Amino acid sequence: QVQLVESGGGLVQAGGSLRLSCDVFGRSFITNTMGWFRQAPGKEREVVASIRWTGTTYYADSVKGRFTISRHSVMNLLYLEMNSLKPEDTAVYFCAATASRTSDAYEYWGQGTQVTVSS
Description:
This protein is mainly beta. The chain has no helices and 11 strands. It starts with a strand and ends with a strand. 32% of the residues are buried.
């Protein structure tokens, strides 16, 4: 059974920082693309950042320069370092993984962790 578990969310004031973690159980995603998504109230789920097995990263324009995605393969962890947080970053954040190294579709998802940024 594959399970992705996010942690690290919480309430923070604008300008503050949070570090989200995603622990993966059941299989290794070392060769898979992994990413962070978020869903704000009344909004569609959107990609925040992703990282390929090669180390190549992608960031949404809205978070470039503020967020950093990284992975620790040995510990089977995915991280999202969030700095200079803004109220518009408020959302439920999800980690996800593709099914294989050749897949572009995210098939495995965590349950989400709430991030709330106060103004």
